[in-house]
Amino acid sequence: MQCIRRIAFSLALLVAAACAQTQDPPDIFLITVDTLRADRVNGENAVATRGFARLAAAGVTFTQAFTSTPLTSPAHASILTGRYPAVHGVHDFGFPLPESMTTLAEVLKQSGYQTAAFVGALVLDSKTLAPGFDQGFDTYFNFPAGKKEGSRWGRLERRAGDVVAEAERWLAAHRSGPRFVWVHLYDPHDPYEPPEPFAAQFRGREYDGEVAYADSELARFLEFLNANGWYRDALIIATGDHGEGLGDHGEDSHGILLYDSTLHVPLVVKPAGDRPNRKVVDALVRGVDLFATMVEAVGAPASKTDGTSLSPLWRGIDDSARQLVAETQYPLRFGWAPLLALRSESHKLVEAPRVEFYDLKSDPGETRNVYQPWSEDVRRLRTALRHYRESAPRPAPQNAKVLQSTLDELKALGYLGNDPGASEVPEPSLLPDPKDRIAVHNALHAAMMLESQGNDRGAREALNRALALEPESFPGRSQAGMLELRAGNHRAAVAHLKRAHQIRPKDASVAFALGDALFALKDFAAARSALNAALQLDPRRYEARVRLGEAESALGNLTVALAHFEAAALLQPDRTEADVASARVYLTRGENARAIPLLRRAARKAPDDASIATLLAEAEKRPASKK
After folding, report:
1. Distance between CA atoms of 561 and 519, rounded to whole angstroms?
2. What is the C-alpha to C-alpha distance for residues 448 and 6, in angstroms, rounded to an integer?
3. d(CA 549, CA 259)
């Protein structure tokens, strides 16, 4: 019987592919809603009652869909490539999607599609935090470069309505198909700030308000497609990239743990052509399956993937069980162990310093860890996980290369902006277990949110809670130091930053901040030492080079100071600080003939800077330079 099923399944796939090749290729619309729990779309807690509900009425609801990782960048990389993070190499924001990876947009573009992507957050900007994600897209709606001030809206994040409006403008200008459009709505991600009337309707339940708002914009987009005659024959997929903890298992947000609260996502597919009409599939499916589903729908050549098409499930011709591999390496940013999990429909194994195993049939909430190494179920999942580790191809090791200014801005989006760093522990499993540190993460996360909202007092209190729980927390010490430095509390900043520098001496940003704080305290010799350390780690750091020059100048080493200022000016010729600092040294030495050209150049770069104009006027009034 099983053999007959396999034969029928294979024949059905061949027939589906043949039909796809003879029919006009459908428009494909992929809508991903960030940080969307499955229970806010399906079940008694549902608040997404318009957009997802409309799709479900004409399509297939997958009640057991899961992401491969509870982080935005790697989760989307898996959707766009059909590969797990271990294969595509994107484990966190800033990690590039390798050119060797075949993306969905590339496959569809080769099949004659026009391709466009409209993203709602900087974490998916292909020019900064998501390099390589634009592979295959004719249009990729990135964020404006160089915009550093003002509200985060339009700078770090876009409202769902703005993303949808941009997608609609593109579609209106590209009316002939076939078209592949990816729309990413970021709103449910914290900080939770739903617009009116959702803010009033969901007061005290702001996360739900964000979900309801994003869903309303999905409904608006679907109506736009319908009004233009593009809805009926299109393949439309709406899903979440990952969920949100909301306190389940002690996790307030996401990224640290691998429970279903952050892995379980909604998924609704409205097929093109054969519409099942409110069909429900309860089988386990995965985000990596979407790539194969869309490629099959257009009859494109099959690509290497970790997933399989979902269409046999809604056609009722496939009952084979699927398994999910899930990972998170985000704990490494905090000095904690990464996690790897294997989930079947009935069990979940989480490889951690303290291994977890759950019987999901009797304990769907994952509240009772029944791990026993000799259990047959444990051994079966562990064998499957070992096979995955051994067989999965590995991309070349990559590092995230992100400007510190961009990392700092990410605090407003709920992401810790420290480099992951390299652990001195040879085996990651020897690091602290993330579930034992989840209260620390909650406090650090709360501090980031509060600081980004201008609440320094609340942020300081949250950081104190985190450091009381884990005094040697590098993120805690560095965050506290940066907060005090910005607030002008330089002695407190030095105390925190010195400890952070001792914990992770290879972090250039902490070394620079420590030097900056010591400089403010006029401890120029100690500042010089810290700034030299920062430049050894990051020789192209402009601010550190200028500050080191100022420290050398304060110590009387004017020639050395000038060398640092000149080096800084070569690093960033458009900036003025190095020119002005060099001019001040020359003025101190009575060489105003050398200072004046530098000040004039700085004035041309920054004509509205009154301080440069004043210093230039003073220099021009001075007597001629000394011989």
Report:
1. 14
2. 52
3. 50
> In whole angstroms, how far apart are CA 355 and each of 16, 349, 370, 492, 534?
42, 8, 10, 39, 39
Residue 104 corresponds to which tokens in the numbers above? 């969905």
| pLDDT tens per residue across span 271-322 | 997 566 789 999 999 999 999 999 999 998 878 899 999 999 998 887 788 9
Q: Where are the domains of the chain?
A: 2-317, 437-538, 540-627
The per-residue pLDDT for 389 is: 86
Query: In this structure, which long-range contacts are made by residues 443-446, counting pairs with CB atoms below 8 Å and at least 24 apart in sequence?
Result: 443/469, 444/334, 444/416, 444/473, 444/475, 444/476, 444/479, 445/252, 445/253, 445/414, 445/416, 446/252
Q: Which amino acid is at 462?
A: A
CATH of 540-627, one of 1.10.150.120, 1.25.40.10, 1.10.10.10, 3.40.50.300: 1.25.40.10
Cis bond leading into 178, ω under 30°? Answer: yes
What is the spatial distance between Cα 334 and Cα 328, in angstroms, rounded to a whole number?
A: 12
Instruction: List, in order, residues 6 or more apart from 312 with CB less than 8 Å away.
Output: 9, 12, 13, 318
Q: Smallest Cα–Cα separation from 161: which of 212, 84, 117, 213? A: 213
Nearest alpha-carbon partner for 128 in 415, 542, 451, 445 = 415
pTM: 0.90
CA 414, 494, 518, 475 torsion: positive or negative?
negative
| DSSP letter assigned to residue 124 | G
pLDDT of 420 above 70? no
Rounded Cα distance between 408 and 425, Å, is 27
Q: Pick one of 3.20.20.140, 3.30.420.10, 3.40.720.10, 3.20.20.70 as the CATH number of 2-317.
A: 3.40.720.10
Q: What is 11-53 written as a DSSP string?
A: HHHHHHHHHHHHSPPPPEEEEEETT--GGGTSSTT----SHHH
Using DSSP bridges, classify how beta strands 179-185 and 60-66 pair: parallel, antiparallel or unpaired.
unpaired
Nearest to 328 by CA among 85, 43, 36, 2: 85
Q: Mind giving me the DSSP string for 158-210?
A: --HHHHHHHHHHHHHH--SS-EEEEEEE-TTSSS--PPTTHHHHTTT-HHHHH
336-393 pLDDT, tens digit per residue, is: 999 999 999 999 999 999 999 999 999 999 999 999 999 999 999 999 999 998 887 7
Alpha carbons 385 and 389: distance in angstroms, whole number: 6
Q: What is the tens place of the pLDDT at every residue in 98-151?
A: 999 999 999 999 999 999 999 999 999 999 999 999 999 999 999 998 666 667
DSSP 430: G
Fold of the domain spanning 437-538: 1.25.40
Q: How far apart are CA 349 and CA 372, in angstroms?
A: 11
Phi, psi of 356 (to 5 degrees): -125, 145
Q: What is residue 111's DSSP assignment? A: T
Give the torsion sign (CA, 20, 25, 26, 30): positive
- 3-state SS, residue 414: coil
Q: At what angle do helices 542-554 and 508-520 cross, to 10 degrees?
A: 30
